Amino acid sequence: MLASAAGALALVIVVWLASVRLRDASIIDSFWGVGFIIIAWICAAVGHGARDRRLALAILVTLWGARLALHIARRNHGKGEDPRYVAMRKRDGERFWLTSLYRVFLIQAATMWVISLPLQAAGSLGAHRGLGALDVIGAAVWLVGFGFEAIGDLQLDRFKADPDSAGKVMDRGLWRYTRHPNYFGDATAWWGLGLIGLGAGLGAAWGLVGSAFDTLILTRVSGKPVLERDIETRRPGYRDYVEHTSGFFPLPPRRR
Fold first, then answer.
1. Distance (Å, whole) CA 58 – CA 60
2. How much is the pTM?
């Protein structure tokens, strides 16, 4: 657990130093997935849980984190600093180079560490518990989540790239069944990793705190609430979309 914390901390400090030089704090977003990859391989390397479980988790997290990192980096390329950080920079003025360290970067490191608790639990426990049915179920749940997140992001990218979509609401594909298939997929993937971690034994149940925390962040803190805060002003049809489409869990659209 200490090694995981050190890995996350080292990453965000390096990225913070780069952000000060580039005057762009939003580069941390592209390294969000990378942080989990680092933690996963630290747990695989220094943990004393079952080797096969540690390796399986590291591979799954690498696939998840690499896709997310590339997606965010490609999405943000050439767009300048994210408006959230621009507002912070304007409010803090010349002190932002320092305040961003603890208001943005260290918070992200701490969040990475908590969400990654399933990896730390599997790395700490269950040395003599090989892969079993729970690991298979967890991998299947992870695959569903990974698919939802990747396909949802791809569908939204294509929608935004179409000039005819300007001002319209994405309500096709997976977005027909949930307003946030990417967030649902992210949460589901981490519950799958949590189940794999639980394969190390009931003593590893504390790892599920990370999965629950990820879901909380996405549904109540910085995911869904932030995205939907002002979207109606940019897309007039969004209120109707909200009334007929599930906010998180995929469900058939309500009748109009």
1. 6
2. 0.95
Are 112 and 23 within 8 A, CB to CB? no
- State the Cα–Cα distance between residues 43 and 49, nearest whole angstrom: 9
Spatial separation of the C-alpha atoms in residues 3 and 179, rounded to whole Å: 37
What is the tens place of the pLDDT at every residue in 116-125? 999 999 999 9
DSSP-assigned letter for residue 176: G
Please name the residue that has the structure tokens 């790239």.
161
Q: How far apart are CA 124 and CA 78, in angstroms?
A: 42
Backbone torsion region of residue 167, taken as left when φ is above 0, otherwise alpha when ψ lies between -120 and 50, otherwise beta: left
d(CA 98, CA 209): 31
